[in-house]
Amino acid sequence: MLASLHKQNLILLVFAILLMEVLTGVTLAFVGVGIFIATFNFKTNKLVRNAIAVLVFSSYWFKYGKIIDPEIGLNFLTSIIVLKILEKETVRDKYMIFFGLILLISAGSLFEKTLSYVFFFGISFLLLIRDFYSFLDKKWKMKDFLYALIWIAPLSALLFILTPRLLEPIPFEQNTTAPGEVGYTTDVNISQIGSLESNQTTVFNVVTSRVLTQKELYWRGNTLTYTDGWNWKETASDKEDAQETFGPNEKNNLASNDVKQSFRLSTKLDYFISLDIPKSVAFGDHYFRSGGGRKAFPQQSWGWMNRYDSISELSSKIDQEEVNSHYLNVTLPKKTKAKISSMFNGSSLKEFESSIKSYFQKQGFVYSMTPGISPNLLSFFETKKGFCSHYASATAIILRIKGIPTRLVSGFMGGSYNRFANYYLITQNDAHVWVEAFENGKWSKIDPTEWVAPERLELGGALYMESVGKDSLSGNSLFRIPRFINEFKLWFRQWDFLFYNWLENMDYHSQSSWLKRLNIKREWLFSIIPFSMVVFMLLYMFFQHLKNRRQVDSVYQEIWQLFYSKMNTKGVNLSMISLKESSELIRNLNDQTVTNVWEKLIAFSFRDQNESITELKKMIRKI
Fold it and tell me: Which of 14, 124, 172, 241 is the most buried (most CB within 10 A)?
């Protein structure tokens, strides 16, 4: 069996591996060094430990710019546990490590929502409880643990069903991508970013009413209409302004080209993401239909929703009678506009689009995640390198200069399909920006990325980032990951999805639904729960009393049977006679050891005197 210290180190190590996306690099390094020092029992100076702690805690401020945040709290707690393991000197420290690890793995469940973590949580809790028994000098019995589970399981299920739900979920994971990471943002600031790194953070899972082709996977977030001539910002006019409620019977009426989607967000977003082009959004008892401009559905009006349904019409065009003049604004000098205008020819949207595409391809423009800083549009024309934001912004500005109203759309393009559970997984690597241009009463989708990097759209963002990664292996490599391993990963992930999909379906609205069917008012739950707890405690105390009685009776029988067996070896049969006759036979033996054991047995069984059962058994065996 592993020693207590090694178990704690192992639990902490596995925890750090599972929560790598939440813990900072400094925290992970501190965990690794701390486990190494504790495992090999190296002595550490208290002053050095405190100095390292200050540096580690300071790093959180420099990374996040604040100290109150769920992710920061998890990093702080992890580092504190490492410090206690390094300075474990007293019994008090042992207890603090035990309760600290329980708190840590419990807090981790708020961030890591997988069945793997559920198994880790259960096994870790079991190991820690066993160690805690040894701290208390008590013997661990699996049957006692299972007996407790038999009582805890129904109580937990009852509380899970009856506990009133919050109307809005608590957003523990924020949409806070670090500078230089791929990720969805409501604004597009190109001039400040010279390179992008992979970001595999899950943003949402979505089930669709039919399987989609890769090029249909455009997930619309928000539109942007204001530009300084290179960067883009959202304004009040970019938010949907023509929402109207509609009846529940309408939400399932799908046209031939409609796709229904059921979303489960993993990170907080300011908008209701939906397939392009969204028609309506539904959550709880709320149903909203999109206005004519099909802009964006902001969530702020109703609070953050992590589960909702949407209906979209898969189309590359949006009908709208007319648009405002701000769709043509470009804050660039006249000379710059004239220079850009002279580079492209045409008289219609289709001709201008063809001219821009031809320019990018003939001039050797390339799609790059490390293009360097391009402070403005003209510098981009010189470097000829950029990612989706560069090409979308350049195309939209060129079209505006040519008199074509445009706007940018920020969202996601791509997604990994899990055929076992029929859902799409979208990560921050799928974040994308494209263009919408207005002509003849219609908004048309244009994605300039397709002109320079068609593989980005064919593969999707996540797979494309994997294929261009520095450490990616060739498809012909002998060390390529076998297909069956990827299939197993997909098969395993379906259970994460199905489990949490079921768990999160037990929300405020579903609880209200079954309460309504049972004619139970929500306020009654605050009386039902305490009453249920009292009934449970009374039942538990009653059965525990019966169990203790059975255990005591069993101990009595075991000890007396052992004594009778020993006496039989001496030719004395005590099983069929009274206590008085047995006492006379014991005295007639003139064996002081037997007499002492007999007196202790009588005192233990009939005078309620405390005697050590273990010591009594030892004395009987020595007869």
Answer: 124
Name the domain boundary from 158, 181, 213. Answer: 158
The answer to whether the CB of 85 falls within 8 A of the CB of 36 is no
Q: What is the dihedral sign for C-alpha 83, 85, 89, 93?
A: positive
- Using one digit for the tens of pLDDT, what is the confidence trace for 182-199? 899 999 999 989 898 888
Report the alpha-carbon distance of residue 385 to residue 364 in Å, rounded.
9
Is residue 248 exposed (0-12), middle (13-18) or buried (19+ Cβ within 10 Å)? exposed
Residue 205's SS3 state is: strand
d(CA 158, CA 148): 16
Residue 521 lies in a domain: no
Q: Report how many domains make up the chain.
A: 3
Lowest average pLDDT, out of 42-46, 386-390, 416-420, 472-476, goes to 472-476
Q: Which residues pair with 11 in a beta bridge?
A: none
- In the chain, the N- to C-terminal Cα span, in Å, equals 36
Q: With 0.85 as the threshold, say if the pTM is over it.
A: no
Same domain, 148 and 254: no
Strands 278-283 and 307-313: antiparallel
In terms of domains, do 220 and 361 share one? yes
Q: Are 416 and 339 in contact (CB under 8 A)?
A: no
Q: What is the pLDDT of residues 479-506, one digit of tens each?
A: 455 667 778 888 888 888 888 888 877 8
**Of 104, 100, 73, whose CA–CA distance to 85 is shortest?**
100
Q: What share of the chain is helix, strand, coil (3-state, %, to 5)?
A: 50, 15, 35
Same domain, 349 and 415: yes
Residue-number span of the structural domain to which 289 is assigned? 202-467
C-alpha span between 399 and 530 (Å, rounded): 66
Q: For 481-564, where are the E strands, in sequence order?
A: none
